[in-house]
Design goal:
CATH class of the largest domain: Mainly Alpha
CATH superfamily of the largest domain: 5' to 3' exonuclease, C-terminal subdomain
CATH topology of the largest domain: DNA polymerase, domain 1
CATH architecture of the largest domain: Orthogonal Bundle
Strand content: 5-15%
Structural class: mainly alpha
Number of domains: 2
Number of helices: 9
Number of strands: 4
Distance between the termini: 54 Å
Order of helices and strands: EEHEEHHHHHHHH
Length: 185
C-alpha cells in the first residue's frame, strides 16, 4: 500500500508490485490510474501505472471467486501480456504459481477471461519485471506458423503447452522443430 498526497490530504492506495516498482522517489509527482471500490464495510482505492493493468484488474473482478486481493496478486506476479499468454495457451501451471490462485481458480480464470481479454488493450510495456516467469518464449509465433501449415489450432495449443512444460524451448523455431520431430517419430 502506498500513500499519495493530493492537495494536503493523503490517500491510501493499494497497488500491484508492477506499479509499486515503477513509482518515483518520495516527494516527486506521480500519476496513478485508480479504481474505487465501495463495499459495505470499506471504501478502497486501487492504483495502477497503466490503463492495461487497470482494465485487466476490472475484468478480473468480474470473474466468479476472484476479488481485489487475487486481482492484485495476479498483476503482481504476471504482466498483462503474460496473463494473456496464460489464457491463450491454457497455462494453468503458471497461474497456480501466483499466491492465492489454486487450480480451480486458474481454470475458471482461463475459461472466463477468454472473451474478456478482447476488451483489455494490448500492453505497451512488454518488458515489465514479473515474479512469475512468463516471458514470450516463441509459442505465439509457433502457433501461427503451425496453423498456417495446416495443423488444427486445438491440437497445436495442447502440444505447445506440453512441450513448454517438459522442455521449455526458447524460440518459435524450437517449437516447430519439436512438433515436426513428434510427427516424424
Amino acid at each position: 500500500m502506498i500513500t499519495v498526497e493530493v492537495g494536503g490530504g493523503g490517500y491510501d492506495v493499494e497497488t500491484p508490485m508492477s506499479t509499486y516498482l515503477e513509482l518515483p522517489s518520495v516527494g516527486n509527482d506521480v500519476t496513478i490510474l485508480t479504481h474505487f471500490l465501495v463495499r459495505e464495510d470499506a471504501q478502497l482505492l486501487y492504483g495502477f501505472s497503466t490503463e492495461e493493468e487497470r482494465a485487466l484488474f476490472r475484468n478480473l473482478l468480474k470473474v466468479s471467486g476472484v476479488g481485489a486481493r487475487i486481482g492484485l496478486a495476479i498483476l503482481s506476479g504476471i504482466s498483462v501480456n503474460g496473463f494473456r499468454r496464460c489464457v491463450e495457451f491454457d497455462d494453468v501451471a503458471t497461474l497456480v504459481k501466483v499466491p492465492g490462485v489454486g487450480r480451480k481458480t486458474a481454470e475458471r480464470l482461463i475459461i472466463e477471461m477468454r472473451d474478456r481479454l478482447k476488451v483489455v488493450p494490448a500492453s505497451s510495456k512488454a518488458g515489465k519485471a514479473t515474479t512469475v516467469a512468463t516471458a514470450d518464449d516463441g509459442r505465439g509465433d509457433a502457433l501461427q506458423a503451425l496453423i498456417a501449415l495446416g495443423y488444427k489450432e486445438t491440437e497445436v495449443r495442447k502440444l505447445l503447452t506440453s512441450v513448454a512444460k517438459a522442455e521449455a524451448p526458447g524460440s518459435a523455431e524450437d517449437y516447430i522443430r519439436m512438433r515436426l520431430l513428434q510427427i516424424a517419430g
